[in-house]
């Protein structure tokens, strides 16, 4: 159905040293690419915003997409494991929804090739939003007059409330969640005063140390690949018993869980560094609580380097320059279920 | 501290029959009264909006005021019992925050004499937001630079992050949550086409049957009393073993839990009927799932009347005319904890 098989073997790049001038510094596009079968329209985005913020897409009526990917903050929940229905805690840390439109695959293990495919996952995950099936979601939405109207406006026709259309609308909304004009973007676009001296030093360190080998491209999440292609790296690349034990890095098998290929053990999607200063705790399991520690752990486990305190400080300063401008958003109105209530668990 | 003792004994009013012309029909004010010690300012409202929507005011970092009092919908969660930290379910149904500024007391049992007092409750309730103390909340807020700035802008000074100021800001935000211009308001203000014929019939029935004996005033929650004065009614007023068993109405002792006065057993604050069509399920325990059933149960248990199907339909139509206009709201930006994370449970 989707091309998920092309795994760019980027391991050879790891540990490479680059000079700042050798890195192709790119600013963030103001618009995300759209798949041919889901062009964005205002009606679709508005519907997607409603669905994204609607806790009635969960079995308990209490968990929405926004519960774990909070767009009022850094686009996630600042927790190690996210909390789903019945207080259940998930095993991986929620990635940010901001700029997720620039990921070529979704989820830490890349199991969704598109935002549309991703949107279908958590709703029926028993420890996340807990719905028994998308058929149940569709049945619920069909009883809410405001959704009948909003789906019709977005997709046309009377039978427009479908799983695919719900996912398309959510994805269209998520494609508007872009944070341009960070200090870094302004600097790259010519405003040499946009970053502090320390941030500029950190930018050079970022290239010299080798961070840019993997965290490349405008979203710092790897080369721009077609949607559905993954850019995965092994974490840890360099073994270190002490750090692996400290941060519990051996348990999760990463992409192996999806492919069952031995070579995919401990491989993860390279995450964006955009707004990384807002998204502690860090890594797939959220075990590293500060950005400073995350930088040191990355350098050691991915590049086999011990950073000086100055390098670490400079890198953290640079990563803070990747915090962008968040577009103003009006709260959606969630349409009423006509003076009745669902049988929530 | 506050005058909570004045209980208006309205029992004598119950069962009274009124004609539509005898009821004083009032439209909703566009502005809520403000206490002398907490005048609203834009900076205070903006801070209050941030706090109201910030899940970091809970022990788990997952429950905000808005989780149970969702302003994107009818101002509550459309559940019987609300869900707090660790998936715990509360015993009473969350009242709507919309137009709560027009309540003279807060909570079903009226235990808070003001919005400011109410705001302090759920945060440290172990089954709601679960914080050990407000001191812990204040300590958390002080480590978030954006809150240091926002409290200073709202209250001035360096030591402006306090429990009282947090509650004042939340209350100031809540005083902006008013829904004017319902069909009923337009009708009362002279637009005789604003309500349907059935809604006008329902308005007359509302008066004739006696609903307006308790649900009076512009917010349909009783006479306008000074903040801190409660307007309570016994529910059920007329005993009915069948309905009491069906809807489990004997367990909760209502205001008695606050005062320990025998006369206060099963007394509850008369809730607003504004936007009641959006806030199913109904009553203090959320056991009645549709507005139609709520109307019938009220007539039987409070007025000892069996409504005809026509009366019930007309009353439901009229209650739908009380759904107001919801002001557009921009989503707040929740300030970051500077690339670190809290130790959430």
Q: Helices and strands of chain A, in N-to-C order?
A: HHHHHHHHEHHEHH
Integer tally of domains of chain A: 2
* Distance between the amino and carboxyl termini of chain A: 34 Å
Low-confidence stretches of chain A: 1-16
Q: Which two chains share the most extensive interface?
A: A-B, 50 and 50 residues
Task: Tell me what the CATH architecture of the largest domain in chain A is.
Answer: Orthogonal Bundle
| Percent of residues in helices of chain A | 25-40%
Largest sheet of chain A: 2 strands, antiparallel
CATH class label of the largest domain in chain A: Mainly Alpha
Oligomeric composition of the shown chains: homodimer
Number of strands of chain A: 2
Roughly how many Å is the radius of gyration of chain A? 21 Å
Write down the overall geometry of chain A: globular
Residues in β-strands, percent of chain A? under 5%
CATH H-level superfamily title of the largest domain in chain A: Cytochrome c-like domain
Q: What spatial order of strands do you see in the largest sheet of chain A?
A: 1-2
Count the helices of chain A. How many? 12
- CATH fold label of the largest domain in chain A: Cytochrome Bc1 Complex, Chain D, domain 2
Average pLDDT confidence of chain A is 93
Protein name (chains A, B): Cytochrome c peroxidase
Subcellular location (chains A, B): Periplasm
Domain Cytochrome c (chains A, B): 43-178, 197-323
GO molecular function (chains A, B): cytochrome-c peroxidase activity; electron transfer activity; heme binding; metal ion binding
Q: What can you tell me about this protein's structure?
A:
2 copies of one chain form a homodimer. The first copy, chain A, is mainly α and 345 residues long. The first copy, chain A, folds into 2 domains: 11-30 and 179-320, Cytochrome Bc1 Complex, Chain D, domain 2, CATH 1.10.760.10; 42-174, Orthogonal Bundle (Cytochrome Bc1 Complex, Chain D, domain 2), CATH 1.10.760. Chain A contains 12 helices and 2 strands; from the N terminus they run H-H-H-H-H-H-H-H-E-H-H-E-H-H. Chain A has helices at residues 42-52, 65-68, 115-120, 134-142, 145-155, 163-174, 183-188, 197-209, 241-246, 256-259, 291-303, 309-320; strands spanning 232-234, 267-269. In chain A, strands 1-2 form a two-stranded antiparallel ribbon. In chain A, helix 1 (42-52) runs antiparallel to helix 5, helix 1 (42-52) crosses helix 6 and helix 8 crosses helix 12 (309-320). The longest helix of chain A is centred in the middle third of the chain and has 13 residues, at 197-209. The first copy, chain A, is globular. The two termini of chain A are 34 Å apart. The relative contact order of chain A is 0.19. Residues 1-16 of chain A have low confidence and may be disordered. At the A-B interface, helix 12 of A face helix 12 of B. Chains A, B: InterPro entries: Cyt_c-like_dom (IPR009056), Cyt_c-like_dom_sf (IPR036909), Cytochrome_c_Peroxidase/MauG (IPR051395), Di-haem_cyt_c_peroxidsae (IPR004852), MauG/Cytc_peroxidase (IPR026259). Chains A, B: Heme c 2 binds at residues 211, 214-215, 298. Chains A, B: Residues 1-22 form the signal peptide. Chains A, B: Its cofactor is heme. Chains A, B: Keywords: Electron transport, Heme, Iron, Metal-binding, Oxidoreductase, Periplasm, Peroxidase, Signal, Transport.
């Amino acid at each position: 159905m989707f091309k998920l098989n092309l795994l760019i073997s980027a391991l050879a790049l790891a540990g490479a040293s680059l000079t700042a001038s050798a890195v192709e510094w790119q600013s963030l596009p103001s618009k995300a690419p759209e798949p041919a079968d889901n062009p964005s329209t205002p009606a679709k985005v508005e519907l997607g915003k409603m669905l994204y913020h609607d806790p009635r897409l969960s079995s308990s009526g209490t968990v929405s997409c926004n519960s774990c990917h909070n767009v009022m903050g850094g686009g996630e929940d600042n927790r190690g494991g996210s909390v789903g229905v019945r207080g259940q805690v998930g095993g991986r840390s929620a990635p940010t929804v901001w700029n997720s439109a620039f990921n070529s695959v979704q989820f830490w293990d890349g199991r969704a090739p598109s935002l549309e495919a991703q949107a279908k996952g958590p709703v029926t995950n028993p420890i996340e939003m807990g719905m028994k099936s998308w058929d149940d979601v569709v049945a619920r939405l069909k009883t809410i007059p405001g959704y009948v109207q909003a789906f019709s406006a977005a997709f046309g026709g009377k039978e427009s409330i479908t799983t695919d259309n719900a996912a398309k609308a959510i994805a269209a909304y998520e494609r508007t969640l872009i944070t341009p004009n960070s200090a870094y973007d302004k600097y790259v676009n010519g405003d040499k005063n946009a970053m502090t001296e320390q941030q500029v030093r950190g930018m050079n360190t970022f290239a010299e140390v080798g961070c840019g080998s993997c965290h490349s491209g405008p979203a710092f999440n790897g080369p721009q690949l077609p949607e559905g292609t993954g850019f995965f790296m092994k974490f840890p690349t360099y073994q270190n018993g002490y750090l692996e034990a400290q941060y519990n890095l051996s348990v999760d098998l990463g992409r192996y869980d999806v492919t069952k290929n031995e070579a995919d053990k401990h491989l993860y999607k390279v995450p964006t560094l955009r707004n990384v200063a807002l998204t502690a705790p860090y890594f797939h399991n959220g075990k590293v609580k500060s950005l400073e520690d995350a930088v040191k752990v990355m350098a050691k486990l991915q590049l086999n380097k011990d950073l000086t305190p100055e390098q670490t400080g400079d890198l953290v300063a640079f990563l803070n320059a990747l915090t962008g401008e968040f577009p103003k958003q009006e709260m959606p109105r969630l349409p009423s279920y006509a003076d009745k209530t669902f049988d929530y668990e």
